[in-house]
Amino acid sequence: MRHAYPAEAIRAAEAPALAAGEPLMERAAYAVAAAVVAEARRRGLALVGARALVLAGGGNNGGDGLFAAAHLARRGLVVTAALLRERVHPEGLAAARRAGVRLLPVSGDGAQGHTGMPAPGLAPVLAVADDADIWIDAIAGIGLTGGLRGVSGALVAALNERRERSILDPLVVAIDVPSGLESDVGAVPGEAVRADVTVTMIGLKPALLLPPAAARAGRVELVDLGLAEALAARPAPVRRLLGVDVADLWPVPGPADHKYTRGVVGLLAGSDAYPGAAVLASSGALRTGCGMVRYLGPEGAARMVLARHPEVVTAAGRVQAMVLGPGIAVGAPVPESAGRALVDSEVALVVDAGGLDWLPTDPTALAGRRVVLTPHAGELARLLTTRGGDPVERSTIEADPARWAQRATELTGATVLLKGAVTVVAQPGGTVFSQSDGTGWLATAGSGDVLAGILGALLAGSDAPAGELAAAAALVHGRAGVWAARNRRGSEGGPSPVGDPVSATGRGPLDDRDPGAPITASDIAAAVPEVVRGILAH
Ligand SMILES: NC(=O)C1=CN([C@@H]2O[C@H](COP(=O)(O)OP(=O)(O)OC[C@H]3O[C@@H](n4cnc5c(N)ncnc54)[C@H](O)[C@@H]3O)[C@@H](O)[C@H]2O)[C@@H](O)CC1
Ligand SMILES: Nc1ncnc2c1ncn2[C@@H]1O[C@H](COP(=O)(O)OP(=O)(O)O)[C@@H](O)[C@H]1O
Ligand SMILES: [K+]
Hints:
By secondary structure, this protein is an alpha/beta fold. The protein is 39% helix and 14% strand. The protein has helices spanning 7-19, 24-42, 60-74, 90-98, 122-131, 150-164, 228-232, 243-249, 259-262, 276-288, 299-308, 336-343, 377-388, 394-398, 401-412, 447-461, 466-487, 521-536; strands at 2-4, 51-56, 78-83, 102-105, 134-138, 171-175, 197-201, 219-223, 238-240, 264-268, 292-295, 321-324, 348-351, 371-373, 415-418, 423-426, 432-435. The strands form two sheets. A ten-stranded mixed beta sheet has the order 1-9-17-16-15-14-13-12-10-11, with helices on both faces. It is elongated and about 80 Å long. It starts with a strand and ends with a helix. Bound molecules: ligand NAX, adenosine-5'-diphosphate and potassium ion. Potassium ion (K) binds next to strand 5 and strand 6.
């Protein structure tokens, strides 16, 4: 499990070490320099003579950057430090000066530079940036509040624009968090650095896991500075499940199990207009493994489900979990079986698409129950607008998914799995999970129906908390998409068992050189057993 901590917890964890005189900044700077060297080597960059620009702000983040600048200068890099405040970390500045780092005071507003010389504005630092192989972002870390202001904001805007226009392709390494992000949240308040690598200190920060901020961080390297234990005692409000965590909560059947103890999933999915959702949700549930799938939707869709999956039962009966709504249009009346499941506190629920309208209006009605809503941003916008009173746009949700998912838990009393490139799971009063396991190939019609089936099977087969199971379902669904995109071999009928020697965890990363193949929602479901096996065999 990855844990992310708010700035307050990081500061509390480091305080005793700082009071005891532990050289935390020296350790941090050394780790940054080492990460820069390693990444430069990976890119085939000759270190001696390589040009690095350090953007140094006025706080301790800038101090980390100035000490790192000194390390790099001593290794033969040609280092310039742009000083973005009149006063920067004095010891860091002295170390940089001693090591031969070129110091470039920067000011956009004609203020005096720290050397007493008039600060020359942005043009000189941009000229250095244009020539540099490496940019190191040490403008601000956990101390930033609000969007980047003043010269720092203008500089980052100018640098981003240059990179966007592909004039430049420097290696960009951010210290602690890409500057411009507020480390506790996923929203991006304004201009922010786009890093290839972020070297973060002591513990992960929520901004490094949550969308959309996390996309600015690139690859994240955690350097605990020896404080992992001090931090572990504090609550981590944002988390990410890993394969091993999913293995721990996966319901593996034992010798005493029979189909009813393994769990029965009821499906109220699919309609005459969208019958395929019934098939895909069934496929998701069956491939995840459960004792039985009961399909309870309309007859036409039931025939299609049985044609594809003769193992599905269409008779009514007891279920441990019920999937309500995939492939059911907004405004459809509540079917009787759905109405019963909504008031039966013994039944766990997955509520998707048209089913979201069937929820009770009183958020306390679902208290103590395992209920997971699985909207995408558009569906969540609708739900928040009808429930909350004020209109909420899809784009507003996409700018801060975790916040709005949490808002939806307050309004409904349910756990909310908000789908997207990064899927977030919010629970009433609880931890937020952020799962980034998939690929853009998953954005295909019916993909969400498969996810609903996977989650239904997990809720039916396990007593684990709904939030964890929802995060696990997102992980398995994401990896199944990756596995399918990696192993697709053209023929119909799902991924071929013979393919690349990709790990069965489905984790072989897709990249620019091998972006994978297009997949269908059926392919995703078909890949689930391989992914589960890989996770369990770990
Ligand atoms: N205390 C220590 O010895 C350690 C500190 N560490 C580093 O120190 C950082 C925290 O240091 P600080 O608390 O000094 O804070 P930061 O250095 O993160 O941020 C404060 C700086 O940002 C500027 N700033 C704040 N809001 C701004 C805005 N909206 N626009 C433009 N500038 C803004 C401030 O004027 C100040 O210069 C961590 O992120 C980490 O990088 C690590 O080296 C670990 C050890
Ligand atoms: N860019 C992306 N990268 C990774 N996963 C994605 C991306 N876009 C969508 N997904 C995933 O694909 C699925 C789409 O589900 P949904 O929007 O409900 O589609 P549908 O209603 O057609 O089934 C979700 O699980 C979502 O997280
Ligand atoms: K930074």
